[in-house]
Amino acid sequence: MSDLDITINVAHFYLFFEAEKHAGVSCVTASVDDIQFEETARIGQVITIKAKVTRAFSTSMEISIKVIVQDMFTGIEKLVSVAFSTFVAKPVGEEKIHLKPVTLLTEQDHVEHNLASERRKIRLHHEDTFKNLMKENNKFDGMLQHRGHLYSLHSFATTERQPRALVIFLAWRVVAMVVGAPAVAAVASVGRGGLARSGSPPTALCVALCSVEVGVRVEAFDCQEWSKGQGRHINSAFLVYNAVDDKEDLVTFPRIKPMSKDDFRRYHGAIARKRIRLGRKYVISHKEEVPLCVHWDISNQVALSNANVEALNNLAARSGWEVTSAVEKIKIYTLEEHDILSVWVEKHVERPAHVTYHLLSDFTKRPLWDPHYVSCEVIDWVSEADQIYYITCPVVNGDKPKDLVVLVSRRRPLKDGDTYTVAMKSVILPSVPPSARYIRSEIICAGFLIRAIDSSSCTVSYFNQISASISPYFAGNLGGWSKSIEETAASCIQFIENATDDGLINRF
């Protein structure tokens, strides 16, 4: 048994223990959210597992579990994973058991309590979100990687308490047969179903490999069901793996197009689940604010301005962007690099590039079309090309509203056909200190690149390297349960195309 097997099984035990301690009665697992493995636990290291109830709803409760590994020689601790599971109290009679509320003692308890409500909304809308994403995926094909295969394993007995832990354990064993010696990257949601009854005859486990996602379906049979070939669906899970070679370098999977109807269904389903995982990973789990580190220095303004523009161009030039949405004039791409997520929104605008540049580079007009901006005012007109703005944002997830101080650097092209640039990043300005009314936030790298298509139209590309403070505003689009980015992009297009040449706005 590996370190992963032990960690998953022990963690599952702690979840049950914490659930039953709070409820005072036996509990059953309703669902398990995504599990992201950030580090590997190795032999000789100490694993610490902490579980607690973050919020009790009417008849169900959410329990968080945090796994930390410590090196005995250096004493360094690293986070292995944070996961959330939903449990339901098992009624003794016919009536449901209503759970007592969780006592909140610290500020962190209140934060987790509020986020638990957001996570519950995502779970409740998961099925609709998945169906909508599947419809979107039929409109375009991303980078196809691996043809689907089907494997079946039989004669695995289950217990009433650990069917889902068994699912993960067996899937990890089977995927090793399929792709070699894999390293687990994430365990996606374990779906709802029944529990396998103790003493049930053999359980069939089917694993379908699509790209590096492994789908697991568990069915249970009694003798009569087995003879008819009609099993009961117990639960399903999806695991994402990175294959590595002997040197622990990542192995690239060959790109093969799906051929059959089932191949396409599995592939598009994997894309939909990836988007949902992406949203949960970067948005729903609470992350600490990244401290601001760029101090504005008027004596060094040229270097800071050039670095601002260069950072935006470097972000746009990176490889690995993946299409996640495509509707009419708007495409959305994402890029994930070493736990850093970036978003690229590409828009086709029926307006000359120089007019579009004039409108988008004036950030005082940003609140007219972007709902993520409440106000935006110039606080320092550094030069014709550089201004510093103070921005306020709306409330998200019940927190205080956010504010930012950003440097906006503009560049006109040196010759026709080149790209207009509007780059922005946060700076520290002593004259605008943080306020108790707001949460001071940060933009690491963002902005617009505007390229002419012809004399009357252009392509606008908006990039944003998402910081922890900005990520809540992208929550719905990353996970697929909202269209706020598409709606903002459409509003931006409408704003540009309806603006008069002097920059005044006609009525929409």
From TrEMBL:
Known pathway: Lipid metabolism; fatty acid metabolism
GO-annotated biological processes: acetyl-CoA metabolic process; fatty acid metabolic process
Recorded GO MF terms: acetyl-CoA hydrolase activity; carboxylic ester hydrolase activity; lipid binding
UniProt keyword annotation of Secreted present: no
Gene3D superfamilies: 3.30.530.20, Hotdog Thioesterase (3.10.129.10)
Domain START: 319-467
One Pfam family from the record: START
Keywords: Fatty acid metabolism, Hydrolase, Lipid metabolism, Repeat, Serine esterase
A GO cellular component annotation in the UniProt record: cytosol
CDD domains linked: BFIT_BACH, START_STARD15-like
Sequence ranges assigned to domain HotDog ACOT-type in this UniProt record: 1-93
Reactions the enzyme catalyzes: butanoyl-CoA + H2O = butanoate + CoA + H(+)
Listed name of the protein: Acetyl-coenzyme A thioesterase
Gene coding for it: ACOT12
